[in-house]
């Protein structure tokens, strides 16, 4: 009964990731989309709770020139759809 | 599965409309379908019938119409948000003394009850925010 | 109608935007359909619960007045995220009556559908 959290804001502009960190449950997934993918930069995610699966939307990384790395894992649009289908509910953070 | 999408971002100002369209267009390949798109907040501007983007940019209104065609989804626009912001269908335009409607089928002006109904009826609700 | 539980989360402050009004209107419509959702104020959303607010620049009919009317529609209590309150140096005595503390994580996990504003 996990949740998919969608984040579309840069962590350098808002405190959404801090708020989200306090609102996730073990087994939840977080998908970074749009400006949310900037969380893949620097140490923005280093304090994020363990036990949460982190994803970044491939096409939003590519358009922004975010260099591929292993973390967070990339998903394409089909993968985005799949994450929503597997989660019990989706919550958007903006 | 059937999906309801809530689109809250304005077209050409934020990425929300693009993200919602890209997501909705990817549903059938995974065996799903978007059944309802509900436009709320500044998302209502996605229904502006006189939307005229430059030719080399995506035409969001046409993309929504195509989505309606291919997936038979309803395109519902929150009436309270829309009328406040100047998007009126023929009936509302006449009622408020305007000569032209600014919103046309397949977009429909509806109340928030339809959003609730969609959230309850469909398998997933995904919000695309500004 | 199917019996899914709905949570409306308000995460934006009042006055600067229409999110609070739109979230409250959504909750009210749910109640009118016989499905009163739970209403949670989290992040800056808890600022909508501060007592002694006035009408704002947006001419919103005072979200404060709307909030006071929610109990008539069985939308009660008004849940707020405890951490968000503390992070802003506030305490529960500064909120309007009818508020009750909750954890955002628990609230999300307990509902089928979450609508964010």
TrEMBL record, chain A:
GO cellular component terms, semicolon-separated: sulfurtransferase complex
GO BP of this protein: tRNA wobble position uridine thiolation
Domain of life of the native organism: Bacteria
Gene3D superfamilies given in the database record: DsrEFH-like (3.40.1260.10)
InterPro entries per record: DsrEFH-like, Sulphur_relay_TusB/DsrH
Protein name: Sulfurtransferase complex subunit TusB
Species annotation: Kushneria konosiri
Automatic annotation (TrEMBL), chain B:
GO molecular function, one term: sulfurtransferase activity
Compartment(s): Cytoplasm
InterPro entries reported for this sequence: DsrEFH-like, Sulphur_relay_DsrE/F-like, Sulphur_relay_TusD/DsrE
Gene3D superfamilies per record: DsrEFH-like
Chief place where the protein resides: cytoplasm
Record field: transmembrane: none
GO CC entries: sulfurtransferase complex
PANTHER family on file: PROTEIN YCHN (PTHR34874), SULFURTRANSFERASE TUSD (PTHR34874:SF3)
Protein name: Sulfurtransferase TusD
Species the sequence originates in: Kushneria konosiri
Automatic annotation (TrEMBL), chain C:
Gene3D superfamilies registered for this protein in UniProt: DsrEFH-like
Name this polypeptide is given: Sulfurtransferase TusC
Chain coiled-coil ranges: none
Top-level taxonomic group: Bacteria
InterPro entries referenced in this protein's UniProt entry, alphabetically: DsrEFH-like, Sulphur_relay_DsrE/F-like, Sulphur_relay_TusC/DsrF
Keyword tags: Transferase
Matching NCBIfam families: PRK00211.1
Pfam families for this protein: DsrE
Gene Ontology terms for molecular function: transferase activity
Family: Belongs to the DsrF/TusC family.
């Amino acid at each position: 009964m996990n949740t998919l959290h969608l984040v579309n804001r840069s962590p350098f502009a808002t405190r959404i990731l801090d708020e989200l960190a306090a609102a996730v449950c073990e087994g939840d997934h977080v998908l970074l989309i749009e400006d949310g993918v900037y969380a893949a930069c620097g140490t923005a995610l280093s304090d994020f709770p363990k036990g949460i699966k982190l994803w970044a939307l491939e096409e939003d990384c590519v358009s922004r020139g975010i260099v591929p790395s292993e973390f967070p894992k990339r998903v394409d649009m089909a993968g985005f759809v799949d994450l929503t289908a597997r989660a019990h509910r989706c919550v958007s953070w903006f | 599965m059937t999906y309801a999408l809530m689109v809250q971002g304005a077209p050409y100002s934020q990425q929300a409309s693009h993200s919602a369209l890209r997501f909705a267009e990817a549903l059938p390949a995974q065996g799903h379908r978007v059944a309802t798109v509900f436009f709320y907040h500044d998302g209502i501007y996605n229904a502006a019938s006189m939307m005229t983007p430059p030719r080399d940019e995506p035409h969001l209104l046409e993309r929504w119409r195509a989505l309606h065609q291919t997936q038979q989804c309803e395109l519902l626009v929150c009436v309270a948000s829309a009328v406040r912001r100047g998007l009126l269908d023929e009936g509302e335009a006449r009622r408020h003394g305007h000569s032209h409607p600014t919103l046309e089928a397949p977009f429909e002006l509806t109340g928030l009850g339809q959003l609730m109904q969609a959230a309850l009826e469909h398998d997933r609700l995904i919000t695309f925010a500004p | 109608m199917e019996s899914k539980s709905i949570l409306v989360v308000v995460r934006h402050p009042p006055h600067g935007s229409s999110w609070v009004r739109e979230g409250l209107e959504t909750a009210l419509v749910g109640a009118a359909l016989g499905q009163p959702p739970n209403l949670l104020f989290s992040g800056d959303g808890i600022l909508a619960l501060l007592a002694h607010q006035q009408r704002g620049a947006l001419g919103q009919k005072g979200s404060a007045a709307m909030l006071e009317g929610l109990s008539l529609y069985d939308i009660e209590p008004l849940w707020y995220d405890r951490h968000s309150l503390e992070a802003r140096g506030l305490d529960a005595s500064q909120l309007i009556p009818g508020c009750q503390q909750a954890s955002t994580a628990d609230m999300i996990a307990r509902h089928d559908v979450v609508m964010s504003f």
